[in-house]
Amino acid sequence: MELILTHHSPTEVAVSCDGKRSHRFELAMVFPIQSAPDATPALLEDPVAYGKLAYLALFGSDTLASKALDALPERVVVVATDLELQSVPWEYAHGPNGWVVAEVPFVRGLPADKRLASATVDQPLHVVVVPSQPLSGGLEPLDVEGEWVRLTEIVSATATAMTLERTVPATLSALRKLVAGERQRVIHFTGHGGQNAEGALLFFEREIGDLSAEEVNTGGNVEAVSTREFINYIRGTAHLVVLSACVSATPGETQFNNLAASLVAYKIPYALGMRFSVIDIDANAFCRSFYGELARGVAVEEAVRQGRLELVDSQRPWAIGVPVLYTALETAAPPFGCREGTPTVIAHRPHCDLEALTAATGALQGRDGNLLGIEWYLTGDKRSSIVTIHGPSGQGKTALVRAAAERIAYEWPGGVLALSFETLPAKAQVLRDIGRFIGIAGETLADPVAAEAAIEAYVTDHRTLLVLDGAESLVAGVDNDDPAAIELAQWLQQLPGRRVGLLIASRRYLGWEGEVGIELAGLASEQGGALFHKNAPQRLGEIDQEHAMALSTQVGGHPLSLRLLGAAFNDTDTPLAAFIADFEAQLDRAENKYVHASHRQLTLQTSIDTSVSALSDDLRAPLSFLWVFQGPFVPASLAGVMHDTPDADQVATITAHLHHLWHQSLVERVQYADGTIMYRAHPVLRQYFRRRLPPAVDTATLDRNFARAMARLAAHLYDTRADDQTWITYASECRDDFNRVVDLLPKDERAGYAAQWGWLCFLQGDYGQAGALFESVLAWAKKHDQAVYLDLLNSLASVKGLIGAYGEAITLYKQALTLIRKNQDGFSEALTLESLADCYNTIEDYAHARSNYERALKLFREQADQASEARILQALGSAYQGTDQLQKAIDSYQASLAISLSLDDQGSQAATLTAMGEIYLKGGTWDSASASFQQALALCEAAEDAPGMVGALTGLAQVAIAQKADSEGLAYYQRILTIHQADGSLGDQANAHTAMAACHVSLEQKREAVDCLNAAGPLYQAAGDRASMAATLRKIAAILVTDSAGLAAGAELLANAVTILEEGGLPDDSDGVTIETMRELQAQAEQQAAAAADKAPGAA
Questions:
Q1: N or C: which end of the chain has fewer CB within 10 A?
Q2: Cα gap 164→157, rounded to integer Å
Q3: Residue-wise pLDDT tens digits, 21-56
Q4: Where are the beta strands (DSSP E) in 821-863?
């Protein structure tokens, strides 16, 4: 059904239906709402009343149009022939059966001579999201990050093989890179739109790192893109463009209706614009339905109708008319290709861990200038190395650096990691945190020297940003000559000389070379007033901007004060003028009481007083206890501090209270990646609660309850969550609280806690503390608690094994076996025998390794544990292989492989096949070796197991080289190099280059061999591997000296290799070639060079 609207006269509009005249209506029916200054509020206030007028205008009564609608057409297409008619919100048409847009697909079309005949849709659904939030004083902040999160949640809940891809950064050129060469994409733009004399605009971001300061100050990072320019970048790639203004607390008009119309005029098949910005619950409902329908194979027009149906019962009736769908098509397009599968989310951002930083709720208010400054300093080719955000407590430093880090993460491919310095960590802890973040193996992290070298090697090759929050503790430690603080500061200070950036939030500047300071002042009065508004959502209609701005000025634009006051006002019935008068009276009393305090201190204290005094006794009670936690805490732990052994009802009550206190801005909420919610107190509030709200219990009771609450949490993590990385991260952030518990628990509870907390430290890579905890209670447990003693023996043995103390580990495992056998626990005995055998295998005592593996194997078979049986058979094969009992090794591997096949354990199959391939390779059985490696490679590729792929490819390369197929071997090593370039392993990249060089030498490709070795040398240097650096120089020299022209250069390289080894205190290089041998080779090369010079033409 097609309705064409044309002006019959200046005041009258003619409606034709499917090419035939239907009726006319007076323009005044639908335009009073447009002509009055308060037009939009009137529409929003009573959309049904307006909708009835729009219905009569469009369809009339007993007209051709009304009869066509009664017949339930497949779609209604409205063609408005001029801008005036196009601006009417026809989507609100409300007839006898309700909203028309809920009954039938309702779209706006082009005149017939400007349409596309049809659209082919043969691609799967692929949504490209552009979450644009330019930093400009003229644009209201939008929660674009929240929009992205919502879309990822919606897509992840589907069971369709669709793709959601984020444009990072949200620039026009970045969008072009994602859509170039593609077809039928859905482009979801979320941000701001506008209008100028030439037409509609979209506001993209622009990269500012390489702009001048004047350019940044003038235009921020906003790029106003016309419809024509936008089309030039996406022409031929988009099937649908969605324009959304994100979410907002209050509705406001957008330009996206006009933009959508402009896009289809340029022959984009569909454009969906949002007439108003809408609140979160409605945006969620519409998007969930709309994208869910598209993913299930529903066409665009019907998917929009289904999304509108979700808005029919909204508490905001105007929401139904917000989506406006335009089409350039003559007929409705078919749906996207749909097949079952797993959705793919591509975020296009490096590894980023900002869990240590509390995020602002929603969009960050009033900090565009600061964000621009950070972005300018820390992006582009000429970026600064150290940027410090300086300001007092509660000024919003933490939220600012988090928001900035999220915005600029794409510029730091090595990753972005936040570290809390609220309680100053030791250097060893910082090394472990960074090491875990960049993926350094646990064995390396166990050795601080090795961990430091590995981290420095990584950041030499990967631009990495560290965000340090609360760095004033580091400055204070250095000022007080604290050796631990000085050690940490010295190490951090030298990092920016590599490829590391430091973004710091601190109440004091560090004073380091290259430090750039950004002073964080209070919010401007207008922005401060807006923040007060934001924190009083239930009373928005009672807040006038003048009073809110005056209050902001009164507190110096201090964000924490404004959040507290806004939330307190939201929870009262007091009129705003009276509320401000009460606050000013409290402030006057505070000034008389605290005569030496600064105005900022007084206003902050008075804001906290105002907030706390408005609470009921039940809500105030938790504040008297939560200050005992230095890190984040779960509600159950706070309930335990308050009630010792809380029941489920008490925990539920505390959980509800904490949620309310979070809304009051009195506690911060931390939401981890898996959705777990925890709480913590801002440092300044924590001090206030401790000083002004003491608990009604004595210190001994408080300490006991705290210790037992933390011990229960440690036990829970140890028993049920030890393999959950989110909880391991949480345990790391709370290590100060967990560490305090050991000395607070009674002796009979201390050993069990030490075993559990020590194991959590072990999982964090803190082997030193784990071992110290185990050893501190080992003797007591031996006398008083055999079960705990057994746990401690096994745990301590694991620590000893990881740090290379295998003799001690073996002794501990044997002691554990004695206890286990008394308990007749076959499964535990098998596990301990396996660990014991692993130690023997590592130190190449294969006889003891085999005997213990065989005992473990017997016990696992008695337990009918096939997975463990397969694992032991594989380990047993390795032990046989170590003593060249190759047939027995093959037999063990084949038995393991048979079990893995029956269990469909592809990881185990791949590892076993690779091990078998190595035996066949050693025995010269090339075909069997190649077949095993190929099977292993296929399994690893299917599982995206990069280490497994490297192992199989290495085997295949060795088989090829052994058969003189060096070109084939070279190709395998090239694939290995590509894998290591992706994972960032410098040493492994260098090894791959070295292996490729050997292939080139065999192929008599000397120049290519030298090129590979020249590529390997700097990588070994960055990895701190002097022995391999020397070997690389020696190998280059060996190639050069085969030609008389290269003798002198070869001799010089050998001399350099000797110097590298001597400076490192090394007797030989990585291939075992000694310094003496190199000197001999150098002397030979020098002699040959001299002899060649004597024979040269013209020599005397």
A1: C
A2: 12
A3: 999 999 888 875 444 444 445 577 789 999 999 999
A4: none
- How far does CA 517 lie from the centroid of its chain? 27
Please give the pLDDT value at position 851. Answer: 96
Q: Judge whether 1069 and 1028 are in contact, CB under 8 Å.
A: yes
Helix (H, G, I), strand (E, B) or coil at 274: strand
Separation between Cα atoms, residue 461 and residue 463, nearest integer Å: 7
Name which of 99-103, 437-441, 971-975 the model is least confident about: 437-441
pLDDT above 60: residue 251 = no
User: Which segment of 242-246, 550-554, 851-855, 891-895 scores lowest on mean pLDDT?
Assistant: 242-246
**Three-state secondary structure of 538-578:** HHHHHCCHHHHHHHHHHCCCCHHHHHHHHHHHHCCCCCHHH
In the block, tokens 């060079």 appear at 1089
Radius of gyration of the chain (CA): 35
- Name which of 807, 805, 828, 804 is nearest 816 in CA terms: 828
Give the domain ranges of the chain: 2-104, 126-346, 359-519, 525-600, 618-717, 1025-1100
CA distance 635 to 638: 5
Asked if 126-346 and 359-519 have one fold, the answer is yes
Q: Which residues pair with 324 in a beta bridge?
A: 273
Instruction: Give 337's strand partners.
Output: 124
pLDDT tens digit string along 227-236?
889 999 999 9
d(CA 708, CA 714): 10
| CA-closest candidate to residue 834, choices 947, 842, 948 | 842
Of the candidates 711, 720, 715, the one whose C-alpha atom is nearest the C-alpha of residue 739 is 711
CA distance 158 to 291: 9
Copy the structure tokens of residue 95. Answer: 């007839």
| Beta-bridge partners for 190 | 131, 244
Q: Are 598 and 694 in contact (CB under 8 A)?
A: no
Position 984 confidence tier, pLDDT thresholds 50, 70, 90? low
Fold of 359-519: Rossmann fold (3.40.50)
Q: Cα(562)–Cα(606) distance, rounded to whole angstroms?
A: 11
- The residue ranges of DSSP E strands in 84-198, in sequence order, are 94-95, 98-99, 106-108, 126-131, 163-166, 185-190, 192-196
Q: What are phi and psi of 822, to 5 degrees?
A: -65, -35
Q: What fold characterizes domain 618-717? A: Arc Repressor Mutant, subunit A (1.10.10)
Helix (H) or strand (E) holding 226: strand 222-226
Residue 673: count other Cβ atoms within 10 Å of its Cβ.
Answer: 10
